[in-house]
Amino acid sequence: MKVHLKGPSSSYKASFHSLSQKNRYRTVSLEKTSINSTAMNENPHHKHQRMLVAGLVSVNSIGTRVMLRHTTLLPDIPGLPGLVTMLFTPIMELRTNDERTCYSGALCGLGFNSQTQEAILPDNDIELAFDVRFDVEDLTEINALRVAINRLTSPLHLEPDKISQLQEDCQDRLT
Q1: Number of domains the chain is built from
Q2: 106 falls within a domain
Q3: Model confidence over 4-13: pLDDT tens digits?
Q4: 160 and 90 in a common domain
Q5: Residue 92 pLDDT > 70, yes or no?
Q6: 141, part of any domain
Q7: CA of 9: how far to CAs of 13, 130, 162, in Å?
């Protein structure tokens, strides 16, 4: 007779979940051969989120589990999930604190249809609470960085010196 044992659990073992509404309640698993399959939270007392990115994402046949392959655990930097999400989202609707002195989170996605007032693919939207303070100056820098990234990835042919200048601009804004 086989008995499957579970536990003991540890506050140091990291668990992962999807940021999108579509996969929020699906179990997230990492490929067993992945170095991140036994990711540890070195600082369980820190309450900020970390990000894990995957090169390949699949869903099991009954739709209850998301399997991640070719993963990278991003550095343990407060505010990184908010920053990365704001940099690469097509549309964001910002949330503020009660005093309206800083931004407390964002709804990120494809926006909404102006005629029907309905969200475009709402299951793929990401509702994110920020774990650090973002203010107007931060958003101005984030938008400038978005512009520089858009210029670098545009299909227009850029001269090498212009590419180098844009890359330096991105690096300066990230430091």
Answers
A1: 2
A2: yes
A3: 767 666 767 7
A4: yes
A5: yes
A6: yes
A7: 8, 28, 52
List Cβ neighbours of 45 (8 Å cut-off, separation of 6 or more): none
49, 76, 103 - which closes a domain:
76
Among candidate residues 60, 76, 92, the one where a domain is terminated:
76
Is residue 81 located within the same domain as residue 135? yes
Q: What's the pTM?
A: 0.78
**Do 69 and 56 contact (CB within 8 A), yes or no?**
yes
Q: Of 71, 77, 81, 11, nearest to 41 (Cα)? A: 11
User: Which residue blocks in the chain are alpha helix, DSSP H?
Assistant: 80-88, 136-152, 160-174
Domain span at residue 18 reads: 12-76
Q: Is 134 helix (H, G, I), strand (E, B) or coil?
A: strand
Judge residue 29's burial from the number of C-beta atoms within 10 Å of its C-beta, 0-12 exposed, 13-18 middle, 19 or more buried: middle
One-letter amino acid of 58: S
Nearest to 16 by CA among 34, 116, 5: 34
Same domain, 40 and 120: no
Tell me which amino acid residue 86 is: M
